[in-house]
Amino acid sequence: MTITFRSETFRDDFTFRNSLYNIKRFPFPFDRDEYMYSVNMEPHIRGKADSVFENLIDVDEHYVAEMQDRALVLKEDPLRCQALPHMMTAQWDVLELLMEHQAQDYPEHFTLEKNGDRWRWVNRPMGIDDTFTFGDAATLPYPPMEYITRQAQGDFCIVDQRDNNLWMDAGMVTTQADWSLDFDIGMNFMEWHGPVPLAHQIGVFDRALKFLLNLQQGKPTRRLNWTMTVNPRLDTSPENYHKWGPDRTTVTPENVGDKMHLRVELQSLWRLPRSNAILFVIRCYLISLSELVTVPKWGRRLPRVLKSLPPEIADYKGLTRNRPIMIDWLAKYDDGAPTSAGIYPD
Amino acid sequence: MLVQGIKSRPEYKGLDIDPHAKRHLFVLEGEGAQALIDEVGAKGRDFLAKSEILYLAAGAAPKAYDVTLSALSPDVFWQASTLQPLLFRLRACLEQARMGTRLSIAGTEGFIGQIMQVAIEYGIDYHSIHTEHRGSMARRVQCVHCKGITDNVTTSPFPCSHCGLPLLVRDHYSRRLGAFQGVNIDAEEPGTAPEPEEMFP
Ligand code: HEM
C-alpha cells in the first residue's frame, strides 16, 4: 500500500492530525475499564490488516513529519542521540533490522540491495539513496544507529546484556514521555526504572527483567504503554519541560477535546544477532480526545479508566492537573453500557 | 541516614577493609577520615604499611583529621587543598596502580560520586570499590535543562547555579554523572516555586 505522507508539525502551530484511516488503526491501550501496571507482554507477531500490528516495524502517514521533527530536536540538542563505545556492533544490528523490515514491508517507499558488504539503501519519502559498506562506519554520513533512526519512527534504546542485567548503553530519544537519555545512559534496568511508582513493589520489574534476559532472536515481544500530552507535541523531554510545561495550564473545558492527546507507546523488544544486545523500540502514537471518541467503545472506556486510575500513576504521568477537565468532557461519551473485552473497536 | 529505596542511587556499604589486599588506595574527604580511623580500630594497623591516603579536609578542617591520619603512618599520606588537585593526583595514582590495588572512598555523596567517576574512567568495576558515606547529606545535582552541575545542594527547590531555574531535586541518581537530577519546579506556572526547604542537611 502506498502511504500518503502528511505535511504537519508537532510544535508551534501543531498542525498534526490523524486521518480517518489512522484513527481506526490507533493502538488503544486499554483492554478493560481500569488500568494498573503489569507485565503486559505478548509476542510481537503480525496482527490484523489495517492495524498498527500489521507490520512489525510500523510506518504511517506521519513518517516524514516525524523525521523532520527529530532533525529539529537533534539540532537543538545532540545529546538526544548517544552510544557508548562498546555498542558499535549493536548499532549495525539495528541498522540491518530496521532497513530489512522497512524495505520488506514497504517496498514502494524503501529498497535495500545487498551485494556482499556493499549495501544500497533507498528511502524515497526522504529522498535518500546511499551506498555504503556494512560494518564500515566511515562509509555513512552518521554513525549507523543515528543514520537509520533518523529514518525510522519511534524512539530507540539499545540495551547491552551482562551480569544478568540490561544496560542502557545507546539510544535515539527525541519523542520521549518525560525521561532523559543523557541522564539514564549507562544505567541498568532497575536503575532507569527507579522513578516509576508502585511497579517495583508489585514485582513487575523483577519479572519483566527475567523475561527479557531470556528473549530469543527471531521472537520479538511487545507491550503498550501510555500517557497523555497537551498538544500533539512529540518532544516532551525533561530537558525542555520548562518550555512545554506551561501548555498544561492552557486546557479548558472548551478546548480539551482538541488539545489533550492520548499518547500510546507500542514498545517492541528484539534480540540482536551479532551483539546479543536488545533493541527497545518505543513507537509513539498520538490521538486527540475528539478523534478518539469517534470510536464509541473508546469514548466509553477512557473516562472510566481515568476515573479509577491510582493517584500515584496519575501524578507520575503528569495528569493530576487536567484529570477533572478530561473526565467531565468525556462523561457525555459514556452512556454506562458495558464495554467488550480487548482493545479493538466493536 | 540517606533516603532509602532510591533505585538508581548506589549503596554505600562501608569501607570494610580486606587486610589481605596487596595495596590500598584511600580517597577521603572531611568526615570520611573517621571512617578509616574506625576501621583501624576494628581491624588493626597492619594494612597501613601498604596504604596510600589522599585526603581533602574540606569543611572538616577544624577537626584536624589530617594530623590523626598522618599519625597512622601509612606508606603515603597526601593532603589536597581543594578537589581539583586531588583529582589530578588520583589520576596519577590510578595510572600507576598495580593489579590487586583496592580503592576505598569515604566522604560526602558528591565527593564519592566524583571519585567514582574518575575510577570508572580508568576501567575499575564500580562493584569492586568500597564506599562509605560520612558527613553532610548535601547532594550534587545536575540541572536537566542546562546540564550544569551544582555542588552541595541542601535544599529543594534550589536555584540552578548556572541557568537560575528553581529546581526540584528528584530521587534519581546517575552514576555516570555522579549527580542527582534537578527539574524545574515551577515549569507549568513560572514564578510559583515554593520556598526552599532544608532537605539534605
Ligand atoms: C529494555 C527495555 C526497556 C527500556 C529501555 C525501558 C525504559 C523505560 C524508561 C526510560 C522509563 C521512564 C522512567 C522514568 O520515569 O524516568 C520507563 C517507564 C516504565 N517502564 Fe520501561 N523500559 C523497558 C522495558 C520495560 C518492560 C519490559 C516493562 C514491563 C512491565 C516496563 C515497564 C515500565 C513501566 C510500567 C513504566 C512507567 C510508565 C508510565 O507509567 O508511563 N519497561 N521504561
UniProtKB/TrEMBL annotation, chain A:
It comes from Shinella kummerowiae. It comes from the Bacteria. Pfam families: HODM_asu-like (PF11927). This is DUF3445 domain-containing protein.
Automatic annotation (TrEMBL), chain B:
The keyword Iron applies. GO terms for molecular function: 2 iron, 2 sulfur cluster binding; metal ion binding; oxidoreductase activity. Transmembrane segments: none annotated. Residues 5-129 form the Dimethylamine monooxygenase subunit DmmA-like N-terminal domain. Residues 140-183 form the Dimethylamine monooxygenase subunit DmmA-like C-terminal domain. Pfam families: DmmA-like_C, DmmA-like_N. InterPro entries: DmmA-like_C, DmmA-like_N. Keywords: 2Fe-2S, Flavoprotein, Iron, Iron-sulfur, Metal-binding, Oxidoreductase. This is Uncharacterized protein. The lineage of its organism: Bacteria, Pseudomonadati, Pseudomonadota, Alphaproteobacteria, Hyphomicrobiales.
